[in-house]
């Protein structure tokens, strides 16, 4: 929270309240209040600055520009784009996605002309922002965008590999690949050792396990890796090339552009395209990150993309004029800004201020940094730009040809040429899918089947009409549409034929993929359990009366439900289940919960087949390892999930109104030892924990105390069972390796509300709030959950 800010108006975003009776009168106080900076913004700006400083120097090194150019771009991106841009929490600066473009421009036209091209690109962005065309940039296929970034990443990694090995990169990717064998034969041990140290710290620092890992990860990995490499180089006296920052008095500014007009226009268009697309997509990604946070943002809601384009244009114009690199929104810094808790654009602007201070006062310290460390840092960023998650997603959507074409085009031809080639392939693929429609007519057991494979557009209407006219009058007909689109012309042709065929005494059934009916009377099914029926207020276990003279067989409800599954649901999931049958189960989580019939794990976790390895028992209990219970089923499931399936997390989920917890509270000790009593003995430590923590503070829900003793025991039991889990040898081993996390969860059945155990010292369960941009069910629980 911001210090010394009046409680009735926290920031300028609430200026509309100033007309209320309790608002302060206009004047100096209101003006002064605008300059208040939240403490969260200050801390976030420092975190972003610590990441931006080494990356800016590394990107400048990779482009072949003066190293000060990276600092200029970082400062201008923070101050200008941060102040004017429409995405308050996006951090702009020299981006890795522009490295190849800028390096090529410097090689062709020289540094001063490259700065002029950056200025012209900024002016072009300002023009596009005034024309309000920002949203149209998002129409570019994601396969093209990710392919462009992957191609740039490959080019960066190959070029920086030469510096990592102690050599000098060439200007083109093919030249770098040809020179690689000679470079491997002429290694420089000092530079290579510094690079290996940098890469090792970049990889291992975020993976330090346990509480110590959570503490040290406050310091960003790029800063740690570069600082450690610098310290080793200085203390060991290694002879390696280091950062050389000439005097600011000799810093080169933009000059008049020199070169062929067509080439300069193409260069301006390339810089404009890459800067704009990367910044706009980054702004959308930042919105998704912010929407998942509980804390409100002081600057309002979603990003204004047209204003963001204006901010990026102004930043590029200023950066180029001052001799800086091109500026764009940077994903690494923006994510760090959001995760550090920034609430307004002040954090972005402050990070620019810190860069200016460092550039003026920290020159002697910066000149100790080995170039090999910066090259290793930038090479790691380039490798990360080739995202396996993006490749999997694109493959699933059958866009891999577009992605591969764009990537190879960028690597071997250039950014603008690669993007143009990718767009052309994307358009060709779309037209191919639109025009490729296969229509067949067959007769099976007296029923005529007309099958349409592909999109049904006006181009396919003549073939559709020919196939439909092969159906004789008064025939039973099934029209199967296996596509996701039907235009108006195709709809009219199909509907007119259907009406005429029915009037002539025939029947028509229109189905979708796998034979599921598109339109079907409700009375045609004997079961109320349909996938599209709201499950509330219908009870499959309610006994139905048999017709007079008939006897309803036992198990009718089970058979009816299974029949409904085979008819309605199985066709939809058969393909996915077939894949799982071939590949085997690979769940990411073990979900241990109660056997209560009201707890539907797939519903409350939005998961499907293959997502969760579920263990259910009475009371969601985890017997202490070695307990003489005579039942190793839970321990066996834990061992199998952790050691064989290699799950990454285990969640213990309790729930309200748990009958096992009620039995623990209300059943007196002694008496006959039934199987249920023997099992519930594993919950006795939870009773003891609740009694022992009465004075220190019980486990509780955020914002309120437990409703009664049963709910108190339900919450305490989750915490206690997590302690039991840590006692299992396989769990303890994987947690020590940093490969496994434990999570606690509580589900209130009556409120349909989930709570997660937080990282606070006290055992507090925090409410999970809905988000319109929720991640995939396979994602891990939020990082705020207690481990």
UniProtKB/TrEMBL annotation:
Residues 1-27, 763-787 are annotated as: Disordered. Gene3D superfamilies: Carbonic anhydrase. SUPFAM superfamilies: beta-carbonic anhydrase, cab (SSF53056). Residues 775-787 have a biased composition (Basic and acidic residues). It is found in: Membrane. The chain crosses the membrane at residues 38-62, 109-131, 143-167, 187-206, 218-241, 261-286, 348-365, 371-388, 400-431. Its main location: membrane. Residues 40-399 form the SLC26A/SulP transporter domain. Keywords: Membrane, Transmembrane, Transmembrane helix. The keyword Transmembrane helix applies. InterPro entries: Carbonic_anhydrase (IPR001765), Carbonic_anhydrase_sf (IPR036874), SLC26A/SulP_dom (IPR011547), SLC26A/SulP_fam (IPR001902). SMART domains: Pro_CA. It is a multi-pass membrane protein. It holds the Pfam family Pro_CA. PANTHER family: SULFATE TRANSPORTER. Belongs to the beta-class carbonic anhydrase family. Catalyzes the reversible hydration of carbon dioxide to form bicarbonate. This is SulP family inorganic anion transporter. It comes from Streptomyces rectiviolaceus.
């Amino acid at each position: 929270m911001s210090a010394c800010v009046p409680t009735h108006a926290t920031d300028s975003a609430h200026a509309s309240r100033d007309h209320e009776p309790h608002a302060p009168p206009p004047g100096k106080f209101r003006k002064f209040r605008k300059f208040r900076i939240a403490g969260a913004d200050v801390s976030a700006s420092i975190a972003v600055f610590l990441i931006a400083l080494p990356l800016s120097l590394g990107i400048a090194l990779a482009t072949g520009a003066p190293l000060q150019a990276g600092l200029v771009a970082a400062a201008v991106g923070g101050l200008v784009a941060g102040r004017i841009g429409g995405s308050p929490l996006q951090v702009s600066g020299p981006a890795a996605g522009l490295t190849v473009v800028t390096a090529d421009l410097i090689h062709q036209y020289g540094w001063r002309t490259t700065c002029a091209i950056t200025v012209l690109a900024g002016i072009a962005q300002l023009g596009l922002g005034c024309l309000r065309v920002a949203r149209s940039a998002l129409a570019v296929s994601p396969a093209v965008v990710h392919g462009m970034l992957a191609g740039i990443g490959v080019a960066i990694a190959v070029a920086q590999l030469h510096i990592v090995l102690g050599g000098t990169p060439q200007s083109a990717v093919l030249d770098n690949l040809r020179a690689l064998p000679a470079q491997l034969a002429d290694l420089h041990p000092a530079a290579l050792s510094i690079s290996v140290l940098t890469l090792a710290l970049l990889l291992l620092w975020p993976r330090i396990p346990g509480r110590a890992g959570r503490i040290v990860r406050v310091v960003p990995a790029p800063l740690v890796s570069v600082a450690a490499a610098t310290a080793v180089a200085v203390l060991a006296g290694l002879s390696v090339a280091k950062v050389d920052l000439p005097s600011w008095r000799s810093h080169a500014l933009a000059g008049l552009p020199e070169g062929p007009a067509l080439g300069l226009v193409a260069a301006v268009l390339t810089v404009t395209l890459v800067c704009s697309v990367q910044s706009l997509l980054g702004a959308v990604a930042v919105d998704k990150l912010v929407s998942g946070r509980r804390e409100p943002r002081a600057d309002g809601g979603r990003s204004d993309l047209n204003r963001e384009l204006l901010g990026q244009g102004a930043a590029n114009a200023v950066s180029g004029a001052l001799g800086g690199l091109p500026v764009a929104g940077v994903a690494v810094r923006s994510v760090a800004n959001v995760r550090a808790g920034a609430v307004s654009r002040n954090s972005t602007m402050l990070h620019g201020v810190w860069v200016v201070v460092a550039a003026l006062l920290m020159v002697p310290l910066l000149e100790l940094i080995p170039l090999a460390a910066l090259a290793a840092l930038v090479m790691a960023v380039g490798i990360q730009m080739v995202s396996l998650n993006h490749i999997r997603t694109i493959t699933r959507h059958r866009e891999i040809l577009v992605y591969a074409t764009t990537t190879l085009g960028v690597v071997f031809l250039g950014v603008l040429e690669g993007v143009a080639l990718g767009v052309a392939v994307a358009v060709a693929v779309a037209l191919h899918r639109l025009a490729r429609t296969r229509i067949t007519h067959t007769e099976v057991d007296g029923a005529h089947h007309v099958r349409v494979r592909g999109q049904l557009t006006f181009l396919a209407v003549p073939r559709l009409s020919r196939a439909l006219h092969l159906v004789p009058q008064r025939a039973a007909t099934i029209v199967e549409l296996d596509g996701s689109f039907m235009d108006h012309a195709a709809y009219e042709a199909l509907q007119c034929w259907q009406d005429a065929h029915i009037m002539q005494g025939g029947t028509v059934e229109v189905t979708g993929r796998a034979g599921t009916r598109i339109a079907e009377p409700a009375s045609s099914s004997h079961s109320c359990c349909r996938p599209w029926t709201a499950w509330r207020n219908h009870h499959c276990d309610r006994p139905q009366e048999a017709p007079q003279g008939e006897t309803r067989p036992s198990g009718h409800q089970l058979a009816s439900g299974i029949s409904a599954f085979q008819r309605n649901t199985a066709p939809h999931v058969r393909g996915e289940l077939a894949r799982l049958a071939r590949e085997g189960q690979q769940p990411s989580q073990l979900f241990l919960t109660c056997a209560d019939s009201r707890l539907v794990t797939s519903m409350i976790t939005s998961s499907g087949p293959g997502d969760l390895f579920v263990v259910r028992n009475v009371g969601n209990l985890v017997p202490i390892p070695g307990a003489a219970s005579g039942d190793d089923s839970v321990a066996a499931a834990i061992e199998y999930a952790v050691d064989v399936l290699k799950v990454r997390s285990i969640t213990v989920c309790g729930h309200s109104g748990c009958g096992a917890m009620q039995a623990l509270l209300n059943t007196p000790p002694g008496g006959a030892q039934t199987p249920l009593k023997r099992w519930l003995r594993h919950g006795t430590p939870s009773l003891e924990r609740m009694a022992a923590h009465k004075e220190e503070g019980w486990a509780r829900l955020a914002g309120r105390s437990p409703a009664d003793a049963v709910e108190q025991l339900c919450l305490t039991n989750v915490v206690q069972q997590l302690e039991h889990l840590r006692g299992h040898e396989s769990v303890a081993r994987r947690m020590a390796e940093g490969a496994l996390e434990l999570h606690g969860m509580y589900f209130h059945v009556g409120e349909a509300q989930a709570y997660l155990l937080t990282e606070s010292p006290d055992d507090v369960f925090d409410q999970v709030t809905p988000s319109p941009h929720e991640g995939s069910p396979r994602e891990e629980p939020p990082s705020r959950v207690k481990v």
